[in-house]
């Protein structure tokens, strides 16, 4: 390696930028591991959203080796700025001191004890102090655990069986009632309602007005490709309460991103209780439901129990990262960086004549080519592959700004997007979408 190469590498490290990928993206080790995984693991990996088909198979890495801050390296040695962020769980970036130092310092106390430990109490106290309206909380391990506990609690409190779900709330039967392996009877208990467009708002309110006496709860995961108005959320909450329906926010994704206290703080609204995961421990496996004592205390009546909910390291990390959210400018930074990304890419896309627009919440940028799902998916699969070749990892819809991203990385991403869109335009990808491209 020459002195000039070393100097270039040092400069890239200082600015937090990936080493350039020369020529085609080399994925030999990824492809070898993928072939082995197809033999051993149903669905290749543990999360549907991480399957290689969800990105750009053949032009996108399949396996990562390590991460530091907002940079990751794949098993073939390629480096990228990461906007997948552990599917949104890595709120602070990879290897953040609040996570790794806490684990190092607490590991010698054990991982899971035979009786409750003090950290269950102190972590719960830290959580209810941060979440608006919360007086009690219970911990679980995954977002689907939390939302399933929420459904059971709502049914117990109201004495009603049916629920309304909005957005993705998890893989359990009462959410994914129309997928293989789920008895058809579950359809009778769940109304799944869209909220992707303003036109979806009235049908939702009308459903609650018509069927409210049968409904235990509305479980709302905010859509990512549009910013719902605070006025609509207030009307939705009032409509729920007018019919004795609990208004529950699924903040598995939006929690600790829109505001330190989540969507309740961001919008100035009060949910009956909330579901949390992902950012609650910045990547460690943990989830929770939290809310007022009047509702949450009823959870003690139920068979809602998990051996690993009291796992100590995740709770210790939770307490540490909640302090970061509360005591730093993390929330303001990720919003400002997301705004910079949105404005920069939208400006470049318009100049190129590409239909791409970055929409939604600034901290959770949604890359949208078209409202038509097939057209969007086709363009986005090409785009994420072109971005990977330029050292940037994106999802095919919603991506995430983390606390480790920098302005230099955002600007690098904007220029990479410009290059990718120019490449796509020259290949005729946007013919019939917008006028011709300009480089």
Task: Spell out the key features of this protein.
Aminotrans_3_PPA_site; 439 residues; 13 helices; 2 domains; 13% strand; Aspartate Aminotransferase, domain 2; disordered C terminus; alpha/beta; Aspartate Aminotransferase, domain 1; single chain; 7-stranded mixed β-sheet
Characterise the protein shown here.
The structure is a single chain. The longest helix has 23 residues, at 330-352. The chain folds into two domains: 3-82 and 330-426, Alpha-Beta Complex (Aspartate Aminotransferase, domain 1), CATH 3.90.1150; 97-327, Aspartate Aminotransferase, domain 2 (3-Layer(aba) Sandwich), CATH 3.40.640.10. The protein is globular. It is built from 13 helices and 13 strands. A hairpin with a 4-residue loop joins strand 2 (71-74) and strand 3 (79-82). With 439 residues, the chain is α/β, with parallel strands linked by helices. Helices cover 40% and strands 13% of the residues. The strands form three sheets. A seven-stranded mixed β-sheet has the order 4-10-9-8-7-5-6, sandwiched between helices. The chain has a four-stranded mixed β-sheet with strand order 1-2-3-13. A two-stranded antiparallel sheet has the order 11-12.
Helices and strands, with pairings:
Elements: H1 3-15, H2 28-40, E1 64-68, E2 71-74, E3 79-82, H3 97-106, H4 118-130, E4 136-140, H5 143-158, E5 162-166, E6 190-193, H6 201-211, E7 215-220, H7 230-242, E8 246-251, H8 263-267, E9 273-276, E10 287-291, H9 293-296, H10 312-327, H11 330-352, E11 357-359, E12 366-368, H12 373-389, E13 392-393, H13 407-426
GO molecular function, one term: pyridoxal phosphate binding
Protein name: MxcL
Keywords: Pyridoxal phosphate
